[in-house]
Amino acid sequence: MITKHTFWSLCKKYNKIEVPIIQRDYAQGRETQEVERIRNKFINEFLIDSILNNKNIELDFVYGSVLTF
């Protein structure tokens, strides 16, 4: 089942968000100049622009799960 969530709704609902191992390389594992350029572009052109202009961003697939106790 595919469910769409916003980043803010996840932050409000859960105390902790952990990036799954499958996506960590993309988020923090690689340190080449090309990856740094891609990260900076993503942050500056997509995230900051979406926040300042109240625009939605479609991130396609973000893998994860919700654990309830």
How are the SSEs placed, and which strands pair?
Elements: H1 7-13, H2 21-29, H3 33-52
Describe this structure in words.
The chain has a domain at 7-52. Helix content is 52%, strand content 0%. It has helices at residues 7-13, 21-29, 33-52. The two termini are 21 Å apart. The model has no long low-confidence stretch (mean pLDDT 75).
Main attributes?
69 residues; mainly alpha; 3 helices
In total, the number of strands is 0
The Cα radius of gyration reads 14 Å
For the biggest sheet, the summary is: none
Low-confidence stretches: none
Query: Secondary-structure element order, as H and E?
Result: HHH
Helix content: 40-55%
Structural class, judged by helices and strands? mainly alpha
The number of helical segments is 3
User: Alpha-carbon distance between the termini?
Assistant: 21 Å
**Proportion in β-strands:** under 5%
Describe this structure in a few short sentences.
The protein has about 70 residues and is an all-alpha fold. Helix content is about 50%, strand content about 0%. It has a domain at about 5-50.
